[in-house]
Write a structure and sequence with these properties.
Helices cover 54% and strands 12% of the residues. It contains twelve helices and eight strands. The radius of gyration is 20 Å and the shape is globular.
Length: 293
């Protein structure tokens, strides 16, 4: 049976591991830098223990003996993760990079990983991991992408191989993110401005009339927690999106504006103002207003 390990074990890594384990996969270990943070290490260890996998003390320990290694860090850390893993990878091991990063970053990571004979497989996650879990649609690229796709499809993963060239899958992902992360930024900015007029509900009601097929109040409530939890990561991703657009000869006007708005939200540090995440967009907007004062 294919032995699997994770480097980076946040939301995405944890959900993918859950699905793979439930499907009968042999997920052996996970390494996350949280293991070195005294205040966060216990929760990370508990998370791994609850899933029945090893909370590895290092990248080397996590990937030893694994046939497939998932890299699930942040876009900012893609090269650092590859540099740490590369010296410990053996010929024949596959390194599956699922991070949201520019094609240029993926290509640099591939050079690092393949130096010792390991295989680099580029993966692009094409939807929100929750609620799909390990069945979230993914695009794979790379010489060994077909083999990795076959292995993971046997555990129910929804994978499509789009070619051998590293960078192709991430290019598609980055272009999609112009809309997806841009939508989050526009939605946030519109509602926050409306809250200055006590008109956020009026705006939501108007959107519901214009686009009746969408459930705007539910959407607003859903994005509330995700924006607080992921604004920093999403802002970093939009800088990678901007790099991709520049490589394609497109000025990243919207991408950089989205990065700025999401970065602004991250800088408010709303998670430090309240012990619990606000429930619903009204509570989020109120907390944002308090943070600005």
């Amino acid at each position: 049976m294919t032995k699997i390990a994770f480097i980076g074990f946040g939301e995405a890594g944890g959900l993918l591991a859950d699905g793979l384990l439930a499907a009968g996969a042999d997920v052996r270990a996970a390494y996350d830098i949280l293991i070195h943070h005294a205040d966060e290490a216990p929760a990370h260890r508990d998370k791994c223990t609850a899933k029945g996998i090893i909370a590895a003390e290092s990248t080397e320990d996590a990937i030893a003996g694994a046939e497939l290694v998932f890299s699930a860090v942040t876009s900012k850390e893609i090269l650092a993760a590859a540099e740490n893993a590369a010296p410990h990878l053996q010929a024949g091991q596959a390194y599956l990079d699922i991070n949201s990063a520019s094609p240029a970053a993926k290509k640099k990571a591939a050079v690092l990983i393949e130096a010792n004979g390991a295989h680099f497989v580029e993966a692009a996650i094409m939807d929100l991991v929750p609620p799909h879990g390990h069945k979230v649609p993914m695009l794979f690229a790379g010489e060994k992408a077909p083999q990795a796709a076959d292995q993971l499809s046997s555990f129910g993963m929804n994978v499509r191989v789009i070619g051998k060239d590293i960078g192709k899958a991430s290019s598609v992902k980055m272009v999609r993110s112009v809309f997806m992360k841009g939508f989050s930024a526009v939605f946030l900015e519109s509602l926050f401005a409306a809250s200055k007029l006590n008109a956020e509900d009026a705006v939501i009601d108007s959107l519901q009339m214009t686009f009746p097929e969408l459930k705007w109040k539910e959407m607003g409530d859903y994005y509330t927690a995700r924006l607080i939890q992921h604004a920093k990561r999403q802002s970093e991703e939009m800088h990678s999106v901007a790099e991709t657009l520049q490589e394609l000869g497109v000025e990243p006007i919207t991408a950089m504006a989205s990065a700025k708005r999401l970065g602004w939200l991250a800088d408010l540090k709303l998670d430090e103002l309240s012990a619990d995440l606000p429930e619903g967009y009204n509570a989020l907007l109120k907390l944002m207003g308090e943070a600005e004062q």
